[in-house]
Amino acid sequence: MQAWFHRNFPEKMAYHLYALSNAGSLLGLVTYPVLVEPYLSLAWQGRLWSLMYLVYAGLAAYGAIKSIKTKSFTGSGSQPAMWNDSSALNLSIDLRPTTKDYILWISLAAIASLLLLATISQITQEVAVIPFLWVIPLSIYLLTFILAFSGELWYSRQVFLVILFIATILVGWALGKSAALGIPMQIGVYSLGLFAACMVCNGELYRLRPHPASLTRFYLMVSVGGAIGGIFINFVAPFIFEDYWELPSVTRYAGSYSWL
After folding, report:
1. What is the widest separation between alpha-carbon atoms in the chain?
2. What span, in angstroms and rounded, lies between the C-alpha atoms of 6 and 151?
3. CA 149 to CA 132: how far, in whole Å?
4. Cα–Cα nearest to 30, from 180, 138, 130
5. Ranges of H-type helices in 153-214
6. What is the pLDDT of residues 2-32, one digit of tens each?
7. Which residue, among 141, 132, 127, has the nearest Cα to 185 in the 3D structure?
8. CA 171 to CA 247: how far, in whole Å?
9. I need a surface site. Which of 100, 170, 200, 207 has the fewest CB within 10 A?
């Protein structure tokens, strides 16, 4: 849909729609337990979901048809426009992503995914077994996408690298003193570490974004990175670690990687 948007409005930034989509995900995540589940039966939830899916399918079809018509009017539709922000590209350079770009996109997305799942495992299995406690790290993860892809206003590499350095020390301290720390303190420290690390990863992803003509490849690599993180935490880590060592291992790696 972002590709369609760029084809129809080449002078505007399509990447901001990614922040909007994650805002929708966050809204659904935090409202379902308090506004939907307590008041609607599963049957009515199914009916409502089906109705909303039909609306979505209709809007998607409309967008696809409009995009096809726009392409037929503009020929190839591949003439790249200048970016509508401070990181405008010189059209004379080669806009195709390099192998280094692919590696960085996958690596940054994988680190953020690893940290999310490692933090969820830590607070739900080592800190406290509380229903819906996993919502906190997932909300933080989505929030970092919203802030990072909303524009360059919310992310400063220098500021967040300092925050990440401090947060990494605090996470190491909390892991070593977990028996003496209360549940709120541990959750707060781990949440701060997740926020700082994911802001660096997603902020750098936004800084490394390609011209919108290559955004499909960009999001494919981001998805591959996220899948790698999930595979490692769920299928690899249980075989190579004797205990829950995912968080300290990934946090140390993320800190060193971000500084590099």
Report:
1. 67
2. 17
3. 27
4. 138
5. 157-176, 183-207
6. 988 888 888 888 999 999 999 999 999 999 9
7. 127
8. 9
9. 100
